[in-house]
Amino acid sequence: VLKHAETLAKEHGLLENDNYHLLDEKKDFFSQYSVSVGSTGNLGLSIGLMGSMLGFKVQVHMSKDAWQWKKDLLRKHGVTVFEHDDDYSFAVESARKQSENNPKDYFIDDENSIDLFVGYSSASLELAGQLKAMNITVSHKNPLFVYLPCGVGGGPGGITYGLKEAFGDHVHCFFAEPTQSPSVLLGFYTQLHENISVRDIGLDNNTIADGLAVGRPSGLVGKLLNHVIDGFYTVKDDYLKEKIKEMYTLEHTFLEPSAVIGCKGIDMVLQHSGYCKQHGIQKEDITHLIWGTGGSLVPEEIKKEYLL
Q1: Nearest in space to 265 (alpha carbons), one of 182, 156, 96, 145
Q2: pLDDT grade, residue 17 (50/70/90)?
């Protein structure tokens, strides 16, 4: 959204001396344009909130998996929300088709966007700064293991790309998916990528982890990272429910079901020694990082339901 706003502003001579504060004063200009996206939840939420703040007309197509409170919050901020009784792929395709009919609409394509992929990768720079501030060294002796929630693959794919650029072979990235929605794992395992769905192997793609309820993976990510991802694992919904409560009790942090899926990665690495032995890693030397990607905007009444 920010890159698109920057592009439009530069094309129309609205940026002076790279003063990006001016973008916040151009709502009337941006209101001539619209932004569309298909989502299961948090991508649509972030696109909608950022787009509406800048003045864009925003259309978010939500799959059946999206939580109601996310749709309500978007509408509260003036976003048009389309609800579909179908999965993520259908929501994306609906947004794509709608955008094709409007020359002033910008479709944010979570399946195939290089811009979005690179945007995700920039998180690695922020993480590198945070680790340095905490005096955490990433090296051959002290490797970093990162456990990334995975839906269509764009977010964890971009982050992995950035982390590998920042830390090279000293970072190990594992993609975590719900047991009923392991779309990226399936795409990699079969090498069919976007040409196979979890439904093709009898899974229903139903999970409480709304942001990860994706049946068909991104072909872009699959092909870019074919030899870069270090591993995959899957997690059942019951585990996610337990970990929400545990994280809140131990860390005083509320994370959504999609965000706590990273916790399981630590258990798997510590319980199964094969990966560490293969790479000559001592388990006690690992810095484990759970990538928690949502929870701060969850309404209090919804939090209470999770924590009961």
Answers
A1: 145
A2: confident
